[in-house]
Amino acid sequence: MANNPRDLTPNEQNDLTNLDSPEVPEYTGDARSASDGLYTRTGKAAPTEIFPRGEQADGPLIPQSPETTSFAGTSETVAVNREPAYTAATPTYATDTTEPVYAETAEPVVVEDETRRGTTDFGLFLMRLFLGAFLIIDSVGTFFRLGGNEGISGLESAFADYPYGSGLAVVVPTLELAAGVFLVLGLLTPVAALVAIAVTGFMALHAFTEQPDGFNVFAWTPETWVPVMLLAASLVVQFTGPGRYGVDASRGWAKRPLVSSWICALLGLAAAGLMWWFGTGINPVA
């Protein structure tokens, strides 16, 4: 029989009669030598069995009784007083020697509501409306020769004695139209009133030169009174403000004009004097 299983034929591989052949190795030896040889070959120490210290050789482990320790001492009783001790305090009384001060009751101050202005704003609106409308109508009639107005040529004839009469014939109606529109709208009223003061002041000075009696108010003709009253109305609007019926209703000068009114009024009068001085060559204060 071949030793290598690869060399066996199929019949030899199926033959089971040689199982008891002496070629099968048998192990002989004790278990201790085998286990010792195993740990020796691997280089490790064989395990050892460790028994408890109290284990007896012939019987089970008997537990020892625990040690007891006794303390000897003396007991001491302490008496505690649980009731607190109260000490009566002698009351002291403070005497106030100051005299009482009585405050006088102030009378209530009645503050008038600024929003309650009655018909003041409506009156200011009418003043602005009439003044602005007159300036607009007069200027438009001059530019377009409406209602028998001689137009700019008529103003040139009226200002013929002045060095810059032709220029003044255009400047005067232009300023009237601008001031009138802004006054009717209530827009930039201090500036619009300033322009109205300047142009009406110039026309008032021109009317004085045409008046034979000069500043004699009893001899003034309607042609003299009209520019004078327009100048007065322009000053009134400047100092009263436009009121609440206008574009400037939210402005401070609409209800309570202060320093701005004085400044604009003085500038308007100064502008009228300068127009007269440089436009006509006549000193207005001479």
Model description:
The chain is an all-alpha fold and 286 residues long. The chain has a domain at 121-280. It has nine helices and no strands. The protein has helices spanning 10-14, 31-42, 120-144, 151-158, 165-185, 189-210, 222-240, 252-255, 259-280. Helix 4 (151-158) crosses helix 5 (165-185) and helix 5 (165-185) crosses helix 6 (189-210). It comes from Corynebacterium haemomassiliense. Residues 1-84 are annotated as: Disordered. This is DoxX family protein.
The gist of it:
The chain is an all-alpha fold and 286 residues long. The chain has helices at 10-14, 31-42, 120-144, 151-158, 165-185, 189-210, 222-240, 252-255, 259-280.
Structure characteristics:
mainly alpha; 286 residues
Give me the Rg, rounded: 65 Å
> What gap, in angstroms, lies between the N and C termini?
166 Å
Shape descriptor = elongated
How does the major sheet shape up?
none
Strands, total number? 0
Mean of pLDDT: 75
In N-to-C order, the SSE pattern is HHHHHHHHH
Unreliable segments (pLDDT under 50, ≥5 consecutive)? 68-73
Would you tell me the structural class of the helices and strands? Answer: mainly alpha
Proportion of strand residues = under 5%
Structure annotation, total helices: 9
**Helix fraction bin:** 40-55%
SSE layout and pairing:
Blueprint: H1 10-14, H2 31-42, H3 120-144, H4 151-158, H5 165-185, H6 189-210, H7 222-240, H8 252-255, H9 259-280
